[in-house]
Specification:
The complex is a heterodimer of chains A (180) and B (267).
Chain A lengths: L1 H18 L15 H11 L2 H19 L2 E2 L2 E2 L5 H14 L2 H5 L3 H27 L6 H28 L16
Antiparallel strand pairs in A: 1-2
Helix pairs in contact in A: 1-2, 1-3, 2-3, 2-4, 2-6, 2-7, 3-4, 4-6, 6-7
Chain B lengths: L2 H18 L3 H35 L3 H38 L8 E11 L7 E4 L12 E3 L4 E8 L4 E5 L7 E5 L5 E6 L10 E6 L10 E4 L11 E10 L4 E7 L8 E8 L1
Antiparallel strand pairs in B: 1-2, 1-12, 2-5, 3-4, 3-12, 4-5, 6-7, 6-9, 7-8, 8-11, 9-10, 10-11
Classes of the chains: A mainly alpha (180), B alpha+beta (267).
Protein backbone atom coordinates (compact mmCIF):
# COMPACT_ATOMS: atom_id res chain seq x y z
CA UNK A 1 0.00 0.00 0.00
CA UNK A 2 2.86 2.38 0.88
CA UNK A 3 4.62 1.63 -2.39
CA UNK A 4 1.40 2.15 -4.34
CA UNK A 5 1.02 5.52 -2.56
CA UNK A 6 4.58 6.41 -3.50
CA UNK A 7 3.86 5.62 -7.15
CA UNK A 8 0.66 7.71 -7.11
CA UNK A 9 2.59 10.60 -5.52
CA UNK A 10 5.29 10.02 -8.15
CA UNK A 11 2.71 10.27 -10.93
CA UNK A 12 1.36 13.51 -9.52
CA UNK A 13 4.74 15.13 -8.91
CA UNK A 14 6.16 14.08 -12.27
CA UNK A 15 3.08 15.53 -13.99
CA UNK A 16 3.63 18.85 -12.20
CA UNK A 17 7.41 18.78 -12.77
CA UNK A 18 7.10 18.22 -16.51
CA UNK A 19 5.02 21.39 -16.76
CA UNK A 20 8.08 23.39 -15.76
CA UNK A 21 10.24 21.90 -18.49
CA UNK A 22 10.07 23.90 -21.71
CA UNK A 23 9.45 22.07 -24.99
CA UNK A 24 12.74 21.44 -26.78
CA UNK A 25 12.96 23.88 -29.68
CA UNK A 26 15.83 21.93 -31.26
CA UNK A 27 13.54 18.88 -31.38
CA UNK A 28 10.71 20.81 -33.06
CA UNK A 29 8.87 21.28 -29.79
CA UNK A 30 9.19 17.72 -28.44
CA UNK A 31 8.34 17.54 -24.74
CA UNK A 32 10.09 15.89 -21.85
CA UNK A 33 7.35 13.61 -20.50
CA UNK A 34 8.09 12.19 -17.07
CA UNK A 35 4.72 10.86 -15.97
CA UNK A 36 4.52 7.97 -18.47
CA UNK A 37 7.89 6.67 -17.19
CA UNK A 38 6.53 6.42 -13.62
CA UNK A 39 3.35 4.83 -14.97
CA UNK A 40 5.27 2.19 -16.91
CA UNK A 41 7.46 1.38 -13.94
CA UNK A 42 4.25 0.91 -11.93
CA UNK A 43 2.99 -1.48 -14.60
CA UNK A 44 6.14 -3.57 -14.09
CA UNK A 45 6.14 -3.47 -10.32
CA UNK A 46 2.46 -3.74 -9.38
CA UNK A 47 0.06 -6.61 -9.86
CA UNK A 48 -2.61 -6.43 -12.56
CA UNK A 49 -5.23 -4.65 -10.48
CA UNK A 50 -2.64 -2.23 -9.05
CA UNK A 51 -1.61 -1.40 -12.62
CA UNK A 52 -5.26 -0.72 -13.52
CA UNK A 53 -5.68 1.60 -10.53
CA UNK A 54 -2.48 3.45 -11.45
CA UNK A 55 -3.57 3.72 -15.11
CA UNK A 56 -6.92 5.11 -13.98
CA UNK A 57 -5.41 7.79 -11.74
CA UNK A 58 -2.59 8.62 -14.14
CA UNK A 59 -4.83 8.83 -17.21
CA UNK A 60 -7.38 10.96 -15.40
CA UNK A 61 -4.72 13.38 -14.13
CA UNK A 62 -3.12 13.55 -17.57
CA UNK A 63 -6.36 14.40 -19.34
CA UNK A 64 -7.46 16.86 -16.67
CA UNK A 65 -4.16 18.68 -17.00
CA UNK A 66 -3.53 18.68 -20.74
CA UNK A 67 -6.73 18.47 -22.78
CA UNK A 68 -8.36 21.88 -23.20
CA UNK A 69 -12.11 22.33 -23.56
CA UNK A 70 -12.62 25.06 -26.16
CA UNK A 71 -16.00 26.68 -26.81
CA UNK A 72 -17.73 23.89 -24.87
CA UNK A 73 -16.21 21.31 -27.22
CA UNK A 74 -14.11 18.48 -25.87
CA UNK A 75 -11.55 17.45 -28.47
CA UNK A 76 -10.48 14.33 -26.67
CA UNK A 77 -12.84 12.86 -24.12
CA UNK A 78 -11.69 12.86 -20.53
CA UNK A 79 -10.68 9.26 -19.88
CA UNK A 80 -9.19 8.21 -23.19
CA UNK A 81 -5.70 8.24 -21.66
CA UNK A 82 -6.85 5.80 -18.97
CA UNK A 83 -7.62 3.20 -21.63
CA UNK A 84 -4.36 3.86 -23.42
CA UNK A 85 -2.30 3.65 -20.22
CA UNK A 86 -4.07 0.46 -19.17
CA UNK A 87 -3.47 -1.18 -22.55
CA UNK A 88 0.21 -0.21 -22.67
CA UNK A 89 0.60 -1.03 -18.98
CA UNK A 90 -0.83 -4.50 -19.55
CA UNK A 91 1.70 -5.13 -22.34
CA UNK A 92 4.50 -3.80 -20.13
CA UNK A 93 3.53 -5.99 -17.19
CA UNK A 94 3.75 -9.01 -19.49
CA UNK A 95 7.50 -8.43 -19.64
CA UNK A 96 7.91 -8.48 -15.84
CA UNK A 97 9.92 -11.76 -15.71
CA UNK A 98 12.64 -10.17 -17.84
CA UNK A 99 12.73 -7.17 -15.51
CA UNK A 100 13.16 -9.45 -12.51
CA UNK A 101 16.06 -11.13 -14.24
CA UNK A 102 17.74 -7.75 -14.47
CA UNK A 103 17.16 -7.11 -18.19
CA UNK A 104 16.21 -3.45 -17.72
CA UNK A 105 17.26 -2.22 -21.13
CA UNK A 106 14.21 -3.76 -22.84
CA UNK A 107 11.83 -2.02 -20.48
CA UNK A 108 13.60 1.31 -20.85
CA UNK A 109 13.27 1.04 -24.63
CA UNK A 110 9.64 -0.02 -24.27
CA UNK A 111 8.99 2.90 -21.96
CA UNK A 112 10.32 5.24 -24.66
CA UNK A 113 8.39 3.53 -27.43
CA UNK A 114 5.13 3.60 -25.45
CA UNK A 115 5.62 7.29 -24.63
CA UNK A 116 5.85 7.90 -28.38
CA UNK A 117 2.68 5.84 -28.85
CA UNK A 118 0.85 8.08 -26.36
CA UNK A 119 1.98 11.27 -28.13
CA UNK A 120 1.12 9.84 -31.55
CA UNK A 121 -2.30 8.65 -30.33
CA UNK A 122 -3.04 12.19 -29.08
CA UNK A 123 -2.07 13.61 -32.45
CA UNK A 124 -4.15 11.08 -34.38
CA UNK A 125 -7.18 11.87 -32.26
CA UNK A 126 -6.94 15.63 -32.71
CA UNK A 127 -6.12 15.35 -36.39
CA UNK A 128 -9.14 13.12 -37.04
CA UNK A 129 -11.33 15.41 -34.97
CA UNK A 130 -10.14 18.62 -36.65
CA UNK A 131 -10.00 17.13 -40.12
CA UNK A 132 -7.20 17.00 -42.64
CA UNK A 133 -4.69 14.25 -41.99
CA UNK A 134 -1.55 16.38 -41.89
CA UNK A 135 1.76 14.76 -41.00
CA UNK A 136 4.54 17.32 -41.34
CA UNK A 137 8.05 16.49 -40.16
CA UNK A 138 7.45 18.31 -36.87
CA UNK A 139 4.92 15.66 -35.89
CA UNK A 140 7.42 12.81 -36.25
CA UNK A 141 10.14 14.77 -34.46
CA UNK A 142 7.86 15.43 -31.52
CA UNK A 143 6.56 11.87 -31.40
CA UNK A 144 10.02 10.33 -31.71
CA UNK A 145 11.73 12.98 -29.59
CA UNK A 146 9.43 12.45 -26.62
CA UNK A 147 10.07 8.69 -26.85
CA UNK A 148 13.86 8.97 -27.09
CA UNK A 149 13.97 11.33 -24.10
CA UNK A 150 11.72 9.00 -22.08
CA UNK A 151 13.91 6.01 -22.97
CA UNK A 152 17.02 7.91 -21.85
CA UNK A 153 15.44 9.02 -18.57
CA UNK A 154 13.82 5.65 -17.76
CA UNK A 155 16.90 3.99 -16.21
CA UNK A 156 17.16 6.77 -13.64
CA UNK A 157 13.47 6.50 -12.67
CA UNK A 158 13.46 2.71 -12.74
CA UNK A 159 16.58 2.51 -10.62
CA UNK A 160 15.31 5.05 -8.05
CA UNK A 161 11.92 3.39 -7.65
CA UNK A 162 13.41 -0.10 -7.61
CA UNK A 163 15.87 1.02 -4.94
CA UNK A 164 13.04 2.54 -2.91
CA UNK A 165 10.74 -0.51 -3.01
CA UNK A 166 12.52 -2.69 -0.38
CA UNK A 167 12.68 0.27 2.03
CA UNK A 168 8.89 0.31 2.22
CA UNK A 169 8.68 -3.49 2.42
CA UNK A 170 7.66 -4.08 -1.18
CA UNK A 171 8.99 -6.89 -3.32
CA UNK A 172 8.24 -7.34 -7.00
CA UNK A 173 6.93 -10.84 -7.64
CA UNK A 174 5.63 -12.51 -10.80
CA UNK A 175 2.07 -12.28 -9.48
CA UNK A 176 1.48 -10.29 -6.33
CA UNK A 177 -1.06 -11.08 -3.65
CA UNK A 178 -2.72 -8.40 -1.59
CA UNK A 179 -0.10 -5.70 -1.68
CA UNK A 180 -2.61 -2.88 -1.70
CA UNK B 1 -7.64 -15.23 -14.82
CA UNK B 2 -7.85 -14.83 -11.05
CA UNK B 3 -11.06 -13.62 -9.46
CA UNK B 4 -9.46 -10.43 -8.12
CA UNK B 5 -8.30 -9.57 -11.63
CA UNK B 6 -11.78 -10.14 -13.05
CA UNK B 7 -13.33 -7.93 -10.36
CA UNK B 8 -10.64 -5.28 -10.94
CA UNK B 9 -11.29 -5.34 -14.69
CA UNK B 10 -15.05 -4.93 -14.23
CA UNK B 11 -14.64 -2.06 -11.75
CA UNK B 12 -12.08 -0.45 -14.07
CA UNK B 13 -14.34 -0.67 -17.14
CA UNK B 14 -17.29 0.77 -15.21
CA UNK B 15 -15.22 3.65 -13.83
CA UNK B 16 -13.74 4.47 -17.24
CA UNK B 17 -17.22 4.28 -18.80
CA UNK B 18 -18.50 6.87 -16.32
CA UNK B 19 -15.55 9.18 -16.99
CA UNK B 20 -15.86 8.84 -20.78
CA UNK B 21 -19.57 9.65 -20.59
CA UNK B 22 -19.01 13.03 -18.94
CA UNK B 23 -20.39 15.96 -20.90
CA UNK B 24 -18.25 19.07 -21.59
CA UNK B 25 -19.73 20.92 -18.59
CA UNK B 26 -18.75 18.14 -16.19
CA UNK B 27 -15.40 17.72 -17.93
CA UNK B 28 -14.68 21.39 -17.18
CA UNK B 29 -15.72 20.81 -13.56
CA UNK B 30 -13.29 17.89 -13.24
CA UNK B 31 -10.53 19.93 -14.86
CA UNK B 32 -11.23 22.91 -12.59
CA UNK B 33 -11.15 20.68 -9.51
CA UNK B 34 -7.85 19.17 -10.60
CA UNK B 35 -6.38 22.59 -11.39
CA UNK B 36 -7.40 23.67 -7.89
CA UNK B 37 -5.51 20.69 -6.47
CA UNK B 38 -2.31 21.34 -8.39
CA UNK B 39 -2.40 25.15 -8.04
CA UNK B 40 -0.31 25.29 -4.82
CA UNK B 41 2.41 23.17 -6.46
CA UNK B 42 2.44 25.39 -9.53
CA UNK B 43 2.59 28.55 -7.46
CA UNK B 44 5.49 27.21 -5.40
CA UNK B 45 7.31 26.03 -8.53
CA UNK B 46 6.71 29.36 -10.22
CA UNK B 47 8.01 31.33 -7.23
CA UNK B 48 11.16 29.16 -7.17
CA UNK B 49 11.72 29.69 -10.87
CA UNK B 50 11.28 33.45 -10.55
CA UNK B 51 13.75 33.49 -7.67
CA UNK B 52 16.31 31.59 -9.72
CA UNK B 53 15.73 33.91 -12.70
CA UNK B 54 16.05 36.95 -10.47
CA UNK B 55 19.26 35.72 -8.93
CA UNK B 56 21.30 37.05 -11.85
CA UNK B 57 19.34 40.29 -11.92
CA UNK B 58 20.12 40.77 -8.23
CA UNK B 59 23.80 40.73 -9.09
CA UNK B 60 23.45 44.02 -11.02
CA UNK B 61 25.69 46.80 -9.85
CA UNK B 62 24.33 49.84 -8.01
CA UNK B 63 25.13 52.03 -11.01
CA UNK B 64 23.07 49.74 -13.27
CA UNK B 65 20.17 49.82 -10.84
CA UNK B 66 20.30 53.61 -10.60
CA UNK B 67 20.34 53.86 -14.39
CA UNK B 68 17.38 51.45 -14.68
CA UNK B 69 15.48 53.36 -12.02
CA UNK B 70 16.03 56.71 -13.72
CA UNK B 71 14.82 55.21 -17.00
CA UNK B 72 11.70 53.79 -15.34
CA UNK B 73 10.89 57.13 -13.69
CA UNK B 74 11.03 58.88 -17.08
CA UNK B 75 8.94 56.13 -18.69
CA UNK B 76 6.41 56.34 -15.85
CA UNK B 77 6.01 60.09 -16.32
CA UNK B 78 5.57 59.67 -20.06
CA UNK B 79 2.94 56.97 -19.57
CA UNK B 80 1.08 59.05 -16.99
CA UNK B 81 0.94 61.95 -19.45
CA UNK B 82 -0.26 59.64 -22.23
CA UNK B 83 -2.87 58.20 -19.91
CA UNK B 84 -4.23 61.62 -19.02
CA UNK B 85 -4.38 62.65 -22.67
CA UNK B 86 -6.13 59.42 -23.64
CA UNK B 87 -8.63 59.81 -20.81
CA UNK B 88 -9.52 63.24 -22.16
CA UNK B 89 -9.84 61.83 -25.67
CA UNK B 90 -12.03 59.01 -24.37
CA UNK B 91 -14.39 61.47 -22.72
CA UNK B 92 -14.50 63.56 -25.86
CA UNK B 93 -15.09 60.47 -27.97
CA UNK B 94 -17.94 59.32 -25.75
CA UNK B 95 -19.47 62.81 -25.81
CA UNK B 96 -19.39 62.81 -29.60
CA UNK B 97 -20.74 59.24 -29.76
CA UNK B 98 -23.62 60.27 -27.51
CA UNK B 99 -24.26 63.26 -29.74
CA UNK B 100 -24.71 61.06 -32.82
CA UNK B 101 -26.65 58.39 -30.95
CA UNK B 102 -23.90 55.73 -30.65
CA UNK B 103 -23.49 53.56 -27.59
CA UNK B 104 -20.77 54.77 -25.24
CA UNK B 105 -17.48 52.95 -25.55
CA UNK B 106 -16.08 51.83 -22.23
CA UNK B 107 -12.56 51.07 -21.17
CA UNK B 108 -12.07 47.45 -20.21
CA UNK B 109 -11.29 46.38 -16.72
CA UNK B 110 -8.08 44.38 -16.66
CA UNK B 111 -6.76 41.96 -14.06
CA UNK B 112 -3.00 41.35 -14.11
CA UNK B 113 -1.80 37.75 -13.97
CA UNK B 114 1.50 35.91 -14.04
CA UNK B 115 2.21 32.87 -16.19
CA UNK B 116 3.16 29.98 -13.95
CA UNK B 117 3.46 27.14 -16.47
CA UNK B 118 3.55 26.66 -20.23
CA UNK B 119 2.44 24.15 -22.86
CA UNK B 120 0.84 21.31 -20.94
CA UNK B 121 0.38 19.07 -23.93
CA UNK B 122 2.45 18.40 -27.01
CA UNK B 123 -0.29 19.45 -29.40
CA UNK B 124 -1.95 22.33 -27.57
CA UNK B 125 -0.64 25.85 -27.03
CA UNK B 126 -1.68 26.75 -23.54
CA UNK B 127 -0.27 28.52 -20.51
CA UNK B 128 -1.38 28.49 -16.90
CA UNK B 129 -1.91 31.75 -15.01
CA UNK B 130 -2.12 32.45 -11.29
CA UNK B 131 -5.67 33.84 -11.31
CA UNK B 132 -8.96 32.00 -11.00
CA UNK B 133 -12.62 32.49 -10.26
CA UNK B 134 -11.73 33.98 -6.87
CA UNK B 135 -10.33 36.90 -8.87
CA UNK B 136 -13.42 37.16 -11.09
CA UNK B 137 -12.06 35.06 -13.96
CA UNK B 138 -14.46 32.99 -16.06
CA UNK B 139 -13.94 30.76 -19.10
CA UNK B 140 -13.73 32.51 -22.50
CA UNK B 141 -12.31 35.78 -21.21
CA UNK B 142 -9.81 37.53 -23.50
CA UNK B 143 -6.20 37.64 -22.36
CA UNK B 144 -3.81 40.29 -23.65
CA UNK B 145 -0.67 42.27 -22.98
CA UNK B 146 0.22 45.86 -23.78
CA UNK B 147 1.46 44.58 -27.18
CA UNK B 148 -1.69 42.75 -28.22
CA UNK B 149 -3.84 39.64 -27.97
CA UNK B 150 -2.56 36.53 -26.20
CA UNK B 151 -5.59 34.22 -26.20
CA UNK B 152 -8.54 33.37 -23.97
CA UNK B 153 -9.21 31.51 -20.76
CA UNK B 154 -10.56 27.95 -20.88
CA UNK B 155 -10.58 25.89 -17.66
CA UNK B 156 -10.77 28.07 -14.55
CA UNK B 157 -10.23 26.92 -10.99
CA UNK B 158 -10.25 28.80 -7.67
CA UNK B 159 -6.90 30.49 -8.19
CA UNK B 160 -5.45 29.13 -11.41
CA UNK B 161 -6.64 29.17 -15.02
CA UNK B 162 -5.64 27.76 -18.37
CA UNK B 163 -5.19 30.18 -21.26
CA UNK B 164 -5.49 28.97 -24.85
CA UNK B 165 -2.96 30.93 -26.93
CA UNK B 166 -3.70 32.42 -30.34
CA UNK B 167 -0.98 30.12 -31.72
CA UNK B 168 -3.32 27.16 -31.13
CA UNK B 169 -5.35 25.82 -34.03
CA UNK B 170 -8.53 25.73 -31.95
CA UNK B 171 -8.27 29.40 -30.93
CA UNK B 172 -10.19 31.27 -33.63
CA UNK B 173 -10.37 35.06 -33.60
CA UNK B 174 -12.41 37.29 -35.91
CA UNK B 175 -10.02 39.86 -37.32
CA UNK B 176 -9.78 42.82 -39.66
CA UNK B 177 -6.85 44.22 -41.60
CA UNK B 178 -5.72 47.78 -41.04
CA UNK B 179 -6.59 50.18 -43.85
CA UNK B 180 -8.94 47.74 -45.63
CA UNK B 181 -12.46 46.41 -45.21
CA UNK B 182 -11.13 42.86 -45.20
CA UNK B 183 -12.24 40.57 -42.39
CA UNK B 184 -11.23 37.00 -41.69
CA UNK B 185 -10.48 34.43 -39.05
CA UNK B 186 -7.12 34.19 -37.34
CA UNK B 187 -5.99 30.85 -35.98
CA UNK B 188 -2.80 28.96 -35.21
CA UNK B 189 -1.24 26.01 -36.95
CA UNK B 190 -1.67 22.44 -35.76
CA UNK B 191 2.02 21.83 -35.20
CA UNK B 192 3.02 25.27 -33.98
CA UNK B 193 4.33 25.72 -30.47
CA UNK B 194 4.62 28.85 -28.41
CA UNK B 195 8.33 28.73 -29.18
CA UNK B 196 7.69 28.78 -32.92
CA UNK B 197 4.30 30.39 -33.31
CA UNK B 198 2.63 30.57 -36.67
CA UNK B 199 -0.79 32.04 -37.16
CA UNK B 200 -2.82 32.61 -40.29
CA UNK B 201 -5.64 34.87 -41.38
CA UNK B 202 -8.07 32.98 -43.61
CA UNK B 203 -11.33 33.67 -45.48
CA UNK B 204 -10.10 36.93 -46.98
CA UNK B 205 -11.31 37.86 -50.43
CA UNK B 206 -9.10 36.69 -53.27
CA UNK B 207 -8.79 40.23 -54.59
CA UNK B 208 -7.82 41.72 -51.22
CA UNK B 209 -5.16 44.40 -51.43
CA UNK B 210 -3.06 43.16 -48.55
CA UNK B 211 0.61 43.89 -48.22
CA UNK B 212 3.28 42.75 -45.78
CA UNK B 213 3.55 45.03 -42.77
CA UNK B 214 -0.17 45.82 -42.45
CA UNK B 215 -1.52 45.37 -38.96
CA UNK B 216 -4.24 42.91 -38.00
CA UNK B 217 -6.72 43.74 -35.24
CA UNK B 218 -9.60 41.94 -33.57
CA UNK B 219 -12.87 42.87 -35.25
CA UNK B 220 -15.05 42.19 -32.21
CA UNK B 221 -17.33 39.83 -34.17
CA UNK B 222 -18.33 36.84 -32.06
CA UNK B 223 -18.39 38.71 -28.80
CA UNK B 224 -15.47 37.03 -27.02
CA UNK B 225 -12.73 39.48 -27.93
CA UNK B 226 -13.09 43.27 -27.81
CA UNK B 227 -12.50 45.03 -31.11
CA UNK B 228 -9.32 46.90 -31.90
CA UNK B 229 -6.84 44.70 -30.05
CA UNK B 230 -3.64 44.13 -32.05
CA UNK B 231 -3.16 40.54 -33.19
CA UNK B 232 -0.11 40.86 -35.39
CA UNK B 233 1.44 42.03 -38.63
CA UNK B 234 0.94 40.56 -42.11
CA UNK B 235 3.96 38.58 -43.29
CA UNK B 236 2.66 37.43 -46.67
CA UNK B 237 -0.57 36.97 -48.59
CA UNK B 238 -1.50 34.08 -50.85
CA UNK B 239 -4.55 33.50 -53.01
CA UNK B 240 -6.04 30.02 -52.63
CA UNK B 241 -8.75 28.31 -54.65
CA UNK B 242 -11.64 29.79 -52.68
CA UNK B 243 -10.18 32.57 -50.55
CA UNK B 244 -7.13 34.59 -49.64
CA UNK B 245 -4.87 33.59 -46.78
CA UNK B 246 -2.28 35.66 -45.00
CA UNK B 247 0.47 34.58 -42.65
CA UNK B 248 0.57 36.77 -39.57
CA UNK B 249 3.44 37.40 -37.16
CA UNK B 250 1.90 37.67 -33.66
CA UNK B 251 2.15 41.08 -32.01
CA UNK B 252 2.95 39.41 -28.71
CA UNK B 253 6.14 37.43 -28.32
CA UNK B 254 4.66 34.24 -26.91
CA UNK B 255 8.09 32.82 -26.11
CA UNK B 256 8.99 35.42 -23.49
CA UNK B 257 5.53 36.07 -22.15
CA UNK B 258 5.52 36.41 -18.36
CA UNK B 259 2.74 38.79 -17.36
CA UNK B 260 -0.66 39.15 -18.98
CA UNK B 261 -3.97 40.92 -18.40
CA UNK B 262 -7.39 39.32 -18.40
CA UNK B 263 -10.29 41.40 -19.67
CA UNK B 264 -12.97 40.85 -17.04
CA UNK B 265 -15.50 43.46 -18.08
CA UNK B 266 -16.09 47.12 -18.61
CA UNK B 267 -15.25 49.83 -16.12
Amino acid sequence: MIFFGILVAGLFLSLVAQEFIQPLAWLYGARVLLMPIVMFYGALALPYWGMLALAFLGGLMWDAMTVPVVDSTVEISLGWSILLYATLGAIMSGFRPLFQRGRWEIHCLMSGFFTSVIVLAEYLMITIRRGGLIFPNEVWWRVGGAGVIAALLSPFFFFTLNWLAPYVGYEIKPEQKGIL
Amino acid sequence: MRRTNIVASVVFILAVGIILALNPRNTIKVQSAFLGMVAPFFRTGSVLRVRIDNYHKALKSLAQLEHDNALLVVQNSALKTDNETLRGLEQENNRLRRAIGYEERSVFQLIPARIIARDSGTWWNTVKIDRGFDDGIDPDMPVLTEDGLVGKTTAVSKNMSTVLLIADETCKVAASVEGTREQGIVRGERTSTSSQPEISLSYLSKTADIKPGQKVYTSGVGGVYPSGVAIGVIKDFKVRELDGRATVIPAVDLTTLQDVFIVVGKK
